Automatic annotation (TrEMBL):
The lineage of its organism: Bacteria, Pseudomonadati, Pseudomonadota, Betaproteobacteria, Candidatus Accumulibacter. Residues 1-23 form the signal peptide. It comes from Accumulibacter regalis. This is Vitamin B12-binding protein. NCBIfam families: TroA_like. PROSITE patterns: FE_B12_PBP. It comes from the Bacteria. GO terms for biological process: cellular response to iron ion.
Length: 301
């Protein structure tokens, strides 16, 4: 049954693609974050997104109406919640993907299993791989998705606006005194962000100093003892939802930590800082304000 469904769906996909060639007639080409060159005979009209942040960025690039499939937690903008589901970023429903007849799939390098992306390529689908590790990568991502979807007019404006806002934040906070910062993703296991994670770049933008920036892992597990030894001046937590996680206050028992002694326990909603989207600058602005609070609370010399 699966094989028959695949043959029928792929044949329909190819026939539809031929029709688009005649209708559009303009090839598009980009290099993705994995360094692969992707060429489409015409801008994509049926796109599947394999991560919530990619769905959001596609909308920002003016391609929201072309997204026919997305994964769980693709909830922004509100229109994204109405898109057909294809599983989760960790467990993709291949049969559902095939049935939706995409002419482009957008994957997440550090979130989707490499085997899943390879399987999709083997089925004949063009796959663009995303992995923005620095804040300014978000702007170039918007532009490239705009090229692939034929919505560059919208995407280029969005990217320019992003860069303008980023430059303003860099000018305002880039030369501020450094604040040693511990960013906590989760409690059990106790997880933080390493050097290559985009949140480390946000901390740098705000004049902060990630106390675990020497770690190469994207989301390393650390110990309470290591955090006490690092003695951060600010502890920033995200959690899972829009509310401040209760476990952030668990740090109050460790009064030897500078952040605890000065009440520098801060919260940034995860959707604003843990998604590689234009809203990352909303999270950055909030984090920068928190680190400014930490600076104001320093003892007077």
């Amino acid at each position: 049954m699966y094989a028959a469904l695949f043959r029928f769906s792929l044949a329909a996909f190819l026939l539809g693609a031929v029709g688009l060639v005649h209708a559009e007639g303009l090839a598009v080409e980009v290099v993705d974050d994995a360094g692969s060159r992707l060429r489409l005979a015409q801008p994509a009209r049926r796109i599947i997104s394999l991560a919530p942040h990619l769905t959001e960025t596609l909308f920002a690039a003016g391609a929201g109406e072309r997204v026919v499939g997305s994964v769980e937690y693709s909830n922004y903008p509100p229109a994204a919640a109405t898109i057909a589901g294809v599983g989760s970023y960790a467990q993709i429903d291949l049969e559902r993907v095939i049935a939706l007849r995409p002419d482009l799939i957008i994957g997440w390098q550090s979130g989707n299993a490499a085997a899943h992306l390879d399987r999709l390529r083997a089925l004949g689908f063009p796959v663009y791989v995303s992995q923005p590790d620095r804040i300014d990568d978000v702007a170039s991502e918007i532009e490239r998705l705009g090229v692939l979807a034929g919505s560059s007019a919208v995407a280029d404006r969005a990217a320019a606006s992003f860069r303008q806002r980023l430059a303003a934040l860099q000018k305002r906070y880039g030369q501020r005194p450094p604040v040693p910062t511990f960013y906590q993703i989760w409690k059990q296991p106790l997880m933080t962000v390493g050097r290559r994670q985009i949140i480390s770049d946000v901390i740098r933008l705000c004049g902060g100093d990630n106390v675990f920036a020497s770690l190469e892992t994207m989301a390393p597990t650390v110990t309470v003892e290591a955090i006490i030894a690092a003695n951060p001046e600010a502890i920033v937590a995200s959690g899972m939802g829009d509310s401040r996680p209760e476990w952030l206050d668990d740090w109050r028992r460790w009064t030897s930590i500078e952040a605890v002694a000065r009440d520098n326990l801060f919260f940034v909603p995860p959707d604003l800082i843990q998604r590689h989207t234009p809203r990352l600058l909303d999270g950055a602005e909030l984090l920068c304000q928190h680190l400014e609070t930490a600076r104001r609370r320093r003892p007077k010399k």
